[in-house]
Amino acid sequence: MRSRRGQLVAAVAELARRYRLPVGSDDALLALIDLLAGDEHAPSAVTDPRAAVDVHLADSLVALDVDDVRRAGRIADIGAGAVESNTRRAAFLERAVALTGARGAEVVNARVEQWAEGRGSCDLVLARALAPLPVVVEYAAPLLRVGGSLVAWRGRPDREVERAGERAARETGLEGSEVRRVHPYPGAEHRYLHLMSKVSETPARFPRRTGVALKRPLGAPGGTDGSA
Fold this sequence. Notes:
The structure is a single chain. This protein is 38% helix and 16% strand. The protein is an alpha/beta fold and 228 residues long. Strands 1-2-3-5-4 form a 5-stranded mixed sheet, covered by helices on one side. β2, α6 (133-140) and β3 form a beta-alpha-beta unit. α1 (4-18) crosses α2 and α1 packs parallel to α3.
């Protein structure tokens, strides 16, 4: 019978095989799991190593089934990812980048609405468990170049939210292309990736002032003109 550590190593190795990750990725992913389990400032309530393999690693890596993710050059992960406004979480991410040797990764400790340097610079924006879809759209659209893509992780489908997201997309230069059901690990239910493409420049008025996207979401019933 395998030890608990042996089971963990095997689960990570299986993910590396499934997604054709580069040699050495197993060790980097295991180091990340160990950091989540041992760092009191880890930005997650799921720190048990085996559970974290599913909830964090598998659920994130499933996006590699999307061709646009594989092809992307410059990627912004907004939320508790590469663009993060919480100083403590950003510090944790800096430790994770250093520990895993993630080359080319940079942690931006800023509100996404205030990250002017990122505007129009990204091939891909990722948003996992961040905010309602219309809010994610407003955050992501300004960062994408025309031709770039947004991938947003969502749970159980809500057609009204999806329609609001589609309206927000039209206002910001995006176009919905697909809602893909995914199965990142056994027992995972109601996991979907919403894929959108940037088809035109985002109007300069977006994103609106910090906090406005959450308070007055684009595409909400009753409508908004997207003014600040």
